[in-house]
Write a structure and sequence with these properties.
Layout: H1 6-29, E1 35-39, H2 40-43, E2 44-46, E3 53-55, E4 58-60, E5 68-75, E6 79-88, E7 94-100, E8 103-109, E9 115-124, E10 128-139, E11 146-153, E12 161-162, H3 171-177, E13 181-185, E14 195-203, E15 213-220, E16 223-231, E17 234-242, E18 260-264, E19 268-273, E20 279-285, E21 293-303, E22 308-317, E23 324-331, E24 342-347, E25 357-368, E26 373-375, E27 378-383, H4 385-388, E28 395-400, E29 403-408, E30 420-423
Antiparallel strand pairs: 1-11, 2-5, 3-4, 5-10, 5-12, 6-9, 6-11, 7-8, 7-10, 13-24, 13-27, 14-21, 14-25, 15-16, 15-24, 16-17, 17-20, 18-23, 19-20, 21-22, 22-23, 25-26, 25-29, 27-30, 28-29
Amino acid sequence: MFKFSINTIKALTITAIFILLQYRALAMQLNKDSVIVVPVGGNSWTNKGSKAQIDSTGLSNWQAGTDVVSIYVRVESAGSLNVALKLVVPDGESAIQAIVGQTVLTRKVSNHRLTVIDFGKSLVKSPGYIQLKLRGLKRSGKVYAKVSDLLLSGPAIAKGAAYVKDNHGGYFYWGRRGPSVHLNYRMPEEAANTTEWFYNEVTVPIGNDVMSSYFMADGFSGGYFGMQVNSPTERRILFSIWSPFNTDDPKGIPDSLKILMLKKGTAVHAGEFGGEGSGGQSYMNYPWVAGKTYGFLVHAQADIKSKTTIYTAYFKPLDQPQWMLIASFKRPVSGTYLKGLHSFLENFDPKMGIAQRRVNFGNGWVIDTSGKWFPLTQALFTGDATANINYRKDYGGGVDGSRFYLRNCGFFNDFASLKTILTRQQSNNNHPDIDFSKLP
């Protein structure tokens, strides 16, 4: 049993009171008892060409007057919003603007220790995302400031807010990438265990072919197949199969559990991938364009005795007659046909989590081992962990006539409810005309 002296108890009490007074002083300073602390490291972006840096500690190297730093938070109420920044000016004095909507808040700061600086109030007219822009006006030191957090209080956050709250699990990275969204197709019961082919059509609307986007058309348990924007001059058609061995390092996969490439198209690169599980990967550099529709076709040949499955992927522009072979992989510890069919949309670069993108999926079909075709007209709309834990709410999915669509990133406000069943129109039962005997 622990025993404390009177002096120790007094010291602990004084310390507790001091901490309480600090929090009360902060609340009074921000004119509200409830304060949210928004880490700059997980919720901010700089303008193109800026040399200012965003990392896990926040904003640094903020030197240029042309730098604009944008911090995004979704508030769930309208009303007054008090704005404060936790910052330090390493040397000299700076004049800084914090702009929220039409409100411009300017402060001169010269604190050489990390301090919470109250910038003032703004009015939020409706619930949704707000963009707070930081600009540097004048400085006598090397940088305007180092900024670690944005602190918000007032009626606008009375019902809560959505933002990346901390870096546990590396969520500054995932939060800045933005939420990924999925369509989980409802399989026909007759073909639940015998789906041999999966056909889907993909159209990226004009203006939505944003850098670092992956528009995944044909996903299934064990692999994925879609198209990417990799650089201003490079686009890919990508097909990958996961190894059943759980590792992020492909070199660590035992030979008996490696993915074996059987064949590939003449212009296709093939190898291994890691970092998100490991396995066999293939891709073709191909100049696909927004506004045009492309067909994706996956074939599964299951061998129950050897417990292996051969997965083969084909691709073609819808207005062209010939299918192109991407690759064929043999996967061990399988022996099943296609299951878990899905499509998804993701951004794979945190710097591009600020840009919105959309993709349409339509005329999806599956074919069973007897050759019977079934249309895919229903899908469950879901999101990744970033969406599910309420760190980002700029995600969407729905139906546009005969097509499903997915949207993500860009901080739009009309988000769609997760775990919603979507049903697209199927105007007729005329499936695509594919001569399987002529596939390469």
